[in-house]
Amino acid sequence: MNILNRAIVIAGPTGVGKTKISIDLASELNAEIISSDSAQVYKGLNIGTAKITEKEMQGIKHHLIDIVEPISKYSVGNFEKDVNKILNQNPEKNFLLVGGTGLYLNSVTNGLSILPEADKKTREYLSTLDNQALLELALKYDEEATKEIHPNNRVRLERVVE
């Protein structure tokens, strides 16, 4: 389902006024708000996220805020599924998609490219390499991309090789 047929998107970095605009617009349109902020999904992660308060919500229903524990993983794939579930469960409702996580916004407006799972044996082998050996291997696979990655960023270097 294309969210652009069902929601108005309000996007931008933290602290530019998305909250006030979204509350005013949601009140006018009798809409609910879906947060597209990758940090606001986590319970208790309030500092640095400019997470909306109960008072600021002014009775407007908000989705995908404080839904997972900080020790849990929540991915863009989870976000896309959750947004589609909200839309499907509320076919007559108006929505605003509000936030600044570009990857999340892109996933529901353009869809995700589904990548295959990493091979377990490859992952195990890569974990045995020191940073220098991993860097050299990544350079053989994709020199241009590897030059943009910090030599100690093992996760991204491993993804180049995978």
UniProtKB/TrEMBL annotation:
Keywords: ATP-binding, Magnesium, Nucleotide-binding, Transferase, tRNA processing. Pfam families: IPPT. GO terms for molecular function: ATP binding; tRNA dimethylallyltransferase activity. It catalyses: adenosine(37) in tRNA + dimethylallyl diphosphate = N(6)-dimethylallyladenosine(37) in tRNA + diphosphate. Its EC number is 2.5.1.75. InterPro entries: Dimethylallyltransferase (IPR039657), IPT (IPR018022), P-loop_NTPase (IPR027417). Gene3D superfamilies: P-loop containing nucleotide triphosphate hydrolases. One of its GO terms (biological process) is tRNA modification. Its cofactor is Mg(2+). Catalyzes the transfer of a dimethylallyl group onto the adenine at position 37 in tRNAs that read codons beginning with uridine, leading to the formation of N6-(dimethylallyl)adenosine (i(6)A). Belongs to the IPP transferase family. This is tRNA dimethylallyltransferase. The lineage of its organism: Bacteria, Fusobacteriati, Fusobacteriota, Fusobacteriia, Fusobacteriales. The gene is miaA.
